[in-house]
Every structure is written in structure tokens, then in C-alpha cells.
Design goal:
mainly alpha, 263 residues
């Protein structure tokens, strides 16, 4: 545990020494939220009824924007796995008594806290959107962000562990995670999508995380999964990805150049 906490602390030190990571994780989603929410304000009706307004579209896109910030934070935090391998740090930890399990927990913990911190910072914008939330709802949203950050960081670690190229990591993450986010109900509601897309969105675990966050922030509506189901699926999603990351790391400890240490 001490080694894992030291690795998590190292992620925080790296983060605060690279302020460009803050800009890279928060600015693009916020710009997209403002542009898309304002641009569609005159035509977008989330519930399919009532007048289309900029306020309604900004409120609808807000939970998805928070999740996108967490997703970007997970990408930036887990790419350090490849950087640590390139610098030789990862090999040194692997041959020490610490072992791969502490690496997984430390890296995922550090990325989780950073992702939840960056996503949670956006919750200060909730009062400006007119969403009917209180302290308990914000606490539930913050707890949910921790689980989502844990899931997405575990997924990023799982992908980064077997890669040696940061370019390849970004390509795979963009190919995999961006569609995962787009088909989560963050960008458009499932109720208005074609039947085959509704089926894909129902199978997408991130759909339930976005739905739970939307309900916690008072933006629930018809067609959304219930809070209990959404929270349960999100927790199971996070647990399954962390278990997969542990399994891959303990069976295939990664070394420079793609070689492997015996488990």
C-alpha cells in the first residue's frame, strides 16, 4: 500500500508540474460544450417537446461534458505508463519487491483522483445552468465521478500496458473511447436515435454512468435508465476493468522494447 500511494503521489507531482495537462483535459470539452450547446440551442429539444433554448441544450450537454473531462484526464494520466517504460522507471519498479499489483493500484488511484478532481471542478457551474440540485445531489455526483474516473483510468491503463508508442496509444484511445462517449447519451438522447443505435447505447456501460450523473444533477428524463440500475452497472464496469488491468499486469509485466518478465 505504501508503494502504491507513493506512485499515486508521483502522478500528482507530475500533474502539477505540467499545467498544460490541465488545459488539455479541461479546455477542449468546455469549448465544445459552449460551442455545440449554443449552436444547437435554437433547434435542440432534449425531451422532444417544448421550446428549444440555449439554456436547455447547455444543461443537457453538461453531464456529458463532465464525463469527457474525466475521460481526457484518464488518457493523460495513463499515458505515463508508456513514458515510465521509456525512461526505465517502470522496469525498476517491476524488478523490485513492489510488484505489478502495486503499480496498477497506484497508477489507477492517481489517475482516478486527478480525473475526479478535474471533472468535479466543473460542478461549480451547476448553479449557472438552473439545474434543481442540492448538496446531497452534488455529493452523489462527486461520488459517481470517482467511480467513472476509476473505470476510465483502469481502461486507459489496460490499453497502455501493452503499448510502446504514445502515438499508438492516442490512436487506439481515440478510436475506442470517443465512440464510447458519443454513444453514451452524452451527445444525443437515445430516444431519438435509430433502433440499432439504441441497442448499441443500451449495451454501452458508459451510457449508465452518464445517465446516473444526469439524474444526480437533476437532468433526468424519459428514456433514461433508473438511478439504481445506472449506479450498479457503473460500479460493475469499474470493477471489471480494474480486474482486467490487474490480470494483464500480473501475467504480462511490460518491459522496454516489448519484452516480458515472467509473471
Amino acid at each position: 500500500m505504501r508503494a502504491a500511494l507513493a506512485l499515486a503521489r508521483r502522478e500528482f507531482v507530475r500533474f502539477f508540474r505540467q499545467p498544460s495537462r490541465v488545459v488539455g483535459a479541461i479546455a477542449p470539452p468546455l469549448v465544445m460544450w459552449a460551442v455545440v450547446g449554443s449552436g444547437l440551442g435554437g433547434s435542440f429539444r432534449p425531451d422532444g417537446a417544448g421550446p428549444a433554448t440555449v439554456g436547455a441544450s447547455l444543461a443537457f450537454f453538461f453531464p456529458g461534458t463532465v464525463v469527457l473531462v474525466v475521460l481526457f484526464a484518464a488518457i493523460f494520466s495513463t499515458i505515463t505508463v508508456i513514458e515510465d517504460r521509456r525512461e526505465g522507471f517502470l522496469q525498476g519498479v517491476l524488478v523490485s519487491p513492489v510488484g505489478p499489483r502495486a503499480i496498477v493500484f497506484g497508477k489507477v488511484l492517481g489517475g482516478t483522483l486527478l480525473g475526479a478532481l478535474q471533472g468535479g471542478a466543473l460542478l461549480v457551474l451547476v448553479p449557472t445552468l438552473g439545474l434543481p440540485v442540492d448538496g446531497a445531489a452534488l455529493a452523489a455526483a462527486a461520488a459517481l465521478l470517482l467511480v467513472l474516473a476509476f473505470a476510465l483510468t483502469s481502461l486507459g491503463f489496460l490499453i497502455a500496458w501493452s503499448l510502446d508508442s504514445t502515438q499508438g496509444f492516442h490512436a487506439i484511445m481515440n478510436l475506442f473511447l470517443v465512440p464510447l462517449w458519443l454513444l453514451s447519451g452524452a451527445f444525443f438522447p437515445a430516444s431519438g436515435a435509430p433502433a440499432f443505435l439504441r441497442g448499441v447505447m443500451a449495451l454501452n456501460p458508459l451510457t449508465y454512468g452518464v445517465a446516473a450523473l444526469r439524474r444526480a444533477l437533476g437532468g433526468g428524463g424519459a428514456g433514461l435508465p433508473g438511478w439504481g440500475l445506472s449506479a450498479a452497472v457503473t460500479v460493475l464496469f469499474a470493477a471489471a476493468l480494474y480486474a482486467a488491468a490487474l490480470l494483464v499486469a500480473t501475467r504480462r509485466p511490460a518491459l522496454r522494447g516489448g519484452s516480458r518478465l515472467p509473471a
